[in-house]
Amino acid sequence: MATKILTVPEKFYECEVKRRRVRANGPGYEPFWRLKALADALLDGDTEFRCKDCHGPLKLHRRHTPGTASYLEHKFKVDSEHCQQGARFIEASDGRAHRQSATPVA
Ligand SMILES: [Zn+2]
C-alpha cells in the first residue's frame, strides 16, 4: 500500500498540559488540563501533553538546534485523520467531521 505524502507536515506548537491545583471542596489536589504553548511547557518541565482539540496523545519532537522549534504531532495516525487540527484531516477532501480521539489522555 502506498504511503501518502503529506504536503503540510503536522506540527503543533500548542497543547494541553496536565497540572495540579488545590481541590476546591476539600483537602488535596486535583488534576486539570491547561492550554499552553509548547515552548513554555518545556521550560516549565511539563511532561504530560494531549491534543487541545481531540484530547489524543501527542508525540514530542525535541529540537535543540538554535533556530528550530520543538513541536508535537498526533501519536496515532487515526487521530490525525479525524482531529480538526490533524494534517491528514485537513488534507482529506471527503467533508468528514471532527471527532474526539478514541484513546483520549485522561
Ligand atoms: Zn487532535
Give the helix/strand layout.
Blueprint: E1 14-22, E2 29-37, H1 38-44, E3 49-50, E4 58-61, E5 71-74, H2 77-82, H3 87-91
Antiparallel strand pairs: 1-2, 1-3, 4-5
The structure holds zinc ion.
The site of zinc ion has 9 residues, from loops.
What do these coordinates show?
Helices cover 17% and strands 26% of the residues. With 106 residues, the chain is of the alpha+beta class. The strands form 2 sheets. Strands 2-1-3 form a 3-stranded antiparallel β-sheet. A two-stranded antiparallel ribbon has the order 4-5. A hairpin with a 6-residue loop joins β1 and β2 (29-37). The relative contact order is 0.22. The model has no long low-confidence stretch (mean pLDDT 93). Residues 51, 53-54, 56, 74, 79, 83, 85-86 line the site of zinc ion. Residues 51, 53-54, 56, 74, 79, 83, 85-86 line the site of zinc ion (ZN).
Q: Roughly what percent helix?
A: 10-25%
Shape: flat
Task: Give the N-terminus to C-terminus distance in angstroms.
Answer: 34 Å
Q: What's the helix count? A: 3
Main structural class: alpha+beta
Strand order of the largest sheet: 2-1-3
- Please provide the count of β strands: 5
Tally of domains:
1
Please give the largest β-sheet: 3 strands, antiparallel
How much of the sequence lies in strands comes to 25-35%
The low-confidence runs, each spanning 5 or more residues with pLDDT under 50, are none
Name the hetero compounds present. Answer: zinc ion
**Element-by-element helix/strand order:** EEHEEEHH
Mean pLDDT: 93
